[in-house]
From TrEMBL:
Protein name, UniProt field: TetR/AcrR family transcriptional regulator C-terminal domain-containing protein
Pfam family, one: TetR_C_1
UniProt xrefs under PROSITE patterns: HTH_TETR_2
Segments of this protein annotated with the region Disordered: 81-109
Keywords: DNA-binding, Repressor, Transcription, Transcription regulation
DNA-binding positions: 132-151
Chain intervals with Basic and acidic residues compositional bias: 85-101
InterPro entries: Homeodomain-like_sf, HTH-type_TetR-like_transc_reg, HTH_TetR, Repressor_TetR_C, Tet_transcr_reg_TetR, Tet_transcr_reg_TetR-rel_C_sf
GO biological process: negative regulation of DNA-templated transcription; response to antibiotic
GO terms of molecular function: DNA-binding transcription factor activity; transcription cis-regulatory region binding
HTH tetR-type domain residues: 109-169
Length: 287
């Protein structure tokens, strides 16, 4: 056993005797109020790091050593000296709470679908310029660097947003009996999606959609063209032209300052304008 393992307990007991049981020691005269219980707690607690270093005592938190000493009712002790008021330390439950802290939970698991959905929500709420990888990570509750395991960069997120929004517009297309009705339904559904995401309209106007990704969703519309004897190439030109017209019209409608109040009369005017232009375009593609 190292010498310190013998010396430390002896010094500890000597300090305890001097501060607690020797009434003539000057420290007792300098201890007003409840300072003596504090000295007792300090005398019990402070040597333990040394004992730990010497390998004598296992590590124990201070609340399991000093707090019980402060909370024990002192019975059978000598009366206090005249003019000296003894204060027994109160037992504070919060000091004796040794419940270990919970480890933080695992970070949320995110994938490409969650990233795209969060990006759309961020654009809708704060605008296109607010979409950064850091803001996106904050919205998802993860570090920005963790997003790069799913998307290589911000432009990839923007491209995925474009494809997701267009796919959303085409997902609920109802079957129509003729190609003019199918083309009209496509343009109306596309416009409804654009007006429901006004902050994303400039994005769709400047980022082309992945035709191969959305082509299966256009199969019903293109089939109506084919049923009426219109070649697939001509059908694609008609659908793309209607898409560009719809996008440009929506861009003109949502181009007002964001703080400007919505004008119902203006919205009605844009509706009539769009419907008239759409009828003219569809009629122009008829053979």
């Amino acid at each position: 056993m190292p010498p310190i393992a013998v010396a430390v307990p002896i010094l500890w007991l000597a300090w305890l005797v001097l501060t607690e049981w020797v009434p003539t020691h000057p420290l007792n005269d300098l201890a007003p109020g409840n300072l003596r219980p504090r000295l007792l707690a300090a005398a019990i607690n402070y040597p333990f790091p040394l004992l730990i270093a010497a390998g004598v005592a296992p590590h124990r938190p201070w609340s399991s050593i000093a707090a019980p000493a402060l909370c024990v009712q002192r019975l059978g002790r000598r009366p206090a000296r005249p003019g000296h008021v003894r204060h027994d330390a109160g037992c504070h439950a919060e000091r004796m709470n040794d419940t270990p802290r919970r480890r933080p939970g695992r970070p949320p698991q995110v994938g490409a679908d969650q990233i795209v959905a969060a990006a759309i929500g961020l654009i809708d709420d704060d605008g296109l310029d607010a979409l950064t990888m850091r803001a996106l990570g904050s919205r998802l509750g993860v570090a920005a660097m963790s997003l790069y395991r799913h998307v290589p960069h911000r432009d990839a997120v923007l491209a995925a947003v474009v494809n997701r929004l267009v796919a959303t517009a085409l997902a609920d297309l109802e079957p129509r009996e003729s190609w003019p009705e199918a083309a009209t339904g496509f343009a109306e559904a596309y416009r409804a999606m654009l007006l429901s995401h006004p902050n994303a309209v400039p994005l769709l106007a400047t980022h082309p959609v992945d035709v191969e990704a959305v082509a299966p969703l256009l199969a019903g519309v293109l089939d109506r063209f084919a049923a009426d004897g219109i070649a697939r190439e001509d059908a694609l030109i008609a659908v793309q032209s209607l898409g560009v017209y719809t996008l440009g019209h929506a861009l003109a409608q949502v181009g007002s300052p964001p703080e400007a109040p919505a004008d119902p009369a203006a919205a009605e005017y844009y509706d009539r304008w769009f419907a008239a232009g759409l009828r003219a375009m569809v009629k122009g593609f008829q053979p």
